[in-house]
Every structure is written in structure tokens, then in C-alpha cells.
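Running this now, will post back.
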Amino acid sequence: MIVAIDGPAATGKSTSAKLVARKLGFTYMDTGAMYRCVTLSVLRGHISLTDEQAIKLLLKDVDIQIEMIEDALIVRLNNEDVSMLIRKPKVTSHVSAVSALPQVREHMVTIQRQIGENKDCVIEGRDIGTIVFPNAKFKFFLVADDFVRAKRRQLDLKAIGEEKSIDDLVEEIRRRDTYDSERSHSPLKKADDAIELDTSQLSIEEQVDFMVNRVKNY
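Update: finished.
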């Protein structure tokens, strides 16, 4: 069974998805972390996004491993723990552009489908319910007020020693929303059969319980 959780940045997708997976006993897959790993590799290699051959070669050499160890999500890129590095502002500011590349998305979608093919999974991202697993049993689309999302992002950045103003973060979030929603390949959008959940005034526990109850009471 696939539980797809989509939506824009800082709506609570990652935190909720981890807890939903734990409560249901499902495997958790963070597709955003996968794209961030590719973005980190592109930045480290100083690769132009127009260099299709270089991107193709990079994808062949990228090995991404994601696992939950107790309450922590550990992300490894070619055996290096990059859990903190992929959350840095430089990666965040480039991830939408890298994720929009058709060959990157096609490669990642293939991997995601292979992982989810024979497992009960909770998978979060931006195109899970529309592109990756359009036949997912359950689809949720999370939204939230821009200011609330900016506050959440600010707390995330503080946790890794970074500081940014709310105004800058609101602008960054809106810019990314526009980019993700208007890209030609696998744009961010709500699946017709997805349940929309506004998390602006909800605690993590409330949004997790809402989704878990929907799945268990189906």
C-alpha cells in the first residue's frame, strides 16, 4: 500500500510522513532528500544545468541511502552522511532548478518506484500522487499559510546554525512555489483524488492523527 503525501515546502510533509509511517508500520521515503542529494552533487561538481551529458554521468555515480535510526533520518550520499549538508540554504536555493531537469526526475522516479513496488510505504514529495504513484491508495495534499511556513523554515535553519529573516523566507518560499508549480515536467499540483489538509493551525500530532485515522478507518 502506498500513502502519498504531497505539497509545497514547510507544510509539515516530512515530519508528518515520518510519524505516519511509524504509526502504520510502513517504510518511509523522503523524495525531497533524494533530490537534495543530487543537487549537492551538482554543486560540488560545479556542473552546469545545461550540460546534459555531465548530469547523465553524475546520476550514474550517485548512490543514495535513506534510513530512520530511532527518531533521526539519516541520508547518505555515496556512503557519506549528508543529512545536515543537504538542508543548507545553498542546496535549498538550487534544488528546485535541479529537480526540474527531466533526466533527474526520470531517474529519481525510477528509483522511487523500485523502492515502493513491494513495500507498504509512506512517500512524501511534490508529484507522488500525480506522477510517481498515481494509483496510490491514499493521497494527501498539505498546504499552509506562507507566514506559518516561513516560521517553520526559520526554526529548521536555526537547528543547523543558519539565520534568515521571515521576510526573506516568505519571498523564498513563494518563489519556490511558483517555480515548482510552473515547471513543465512533473509540476507541483494536487491530484484530483487527494485529500487537502491545511496545516496552518494544526499541531504535528493533529495532522498525523488525521492521516493515520483515514488510512486505518478506510
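Residues 166-182 form the longest helix (17 residues). More later if anyone needs it.
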